[in-house]
Fold:
Amino acid sequence: MAVRIVTDSTADIPLAQAQALAITIVPLTVFFGEQAFLDGVELDNAGFYRKLRESKSLPRTSQPPPAAFQEAYKNLISEGADGILSVHLSSKLSGTYQSACTARDTLPESMKKVPIAILDSCSISVGMSQPIMHVAQGAKQGLSLEEIKVHVINELSRTHVLAVLDTLEFLKRGGRIGSARAMLGNMLNVKPILALKDGEAIPLERPRTRSKAYARIAQLVSEMGKIESLCIAEASEEVGQQLAQAIREVYKGDIPFYKLGAVLGTHTGPGTAAVAVITAQ
Structure:
């Protein structure tokens, strides 16, 4: 049997695509007050953003317990997997990667004969989903675990993620910025641009309007050189299409769209749009 791929729900891979590529998704948990939902299983993207708008308090998220990863690994080993590649969101944003490592290291000795490689993607959402889906295709074609691991590390190193927020309110509610700074930003109609760098989300620029922010994203994309692939993650179709319209001024290739999941949505809000760019080698 081929090498199998495991990831977590923050990769924002649609269920149908995950099933077609034989990717196992281990869900994080989203909490609204005392209510707990398995991300993407008991709460889809539309339901999450509806609750986010209605909730008076910010939801919180929790990484999968090691037992959830062990169940996934055991099932794949029992099905005859030759090896397992497990790729997860940045360890600087969540304990998910560590949970997966604990699960692997505490497997019964009889199951440790099947190699399991666990990678910290240093990314999230479409920043890691594209490389994961690409190597899943390679796994189905019979590539070895080591070959697949090299491929995904290479693609992750060439992936750049930029996001535009509609408001600073959710960063404030999550304790990422102070109330005074958030109030000033909202009064000025600031639409902050964030980038992922070394596994962390960092503020890049603060344009005054959404259209200026999208135009700036397009400019940054145009400066990246030759592009291998590009996709957009959207909290809503409206913001996704607006970002795509700006990017199409500088990029003529195909632009797939994905729904932005609960973990980023919790801290960035329902007006967020992000682009992941894989630059050519």
User: Anything to note?
Assistant: The first strand starts at residue 4 and ends at 8.
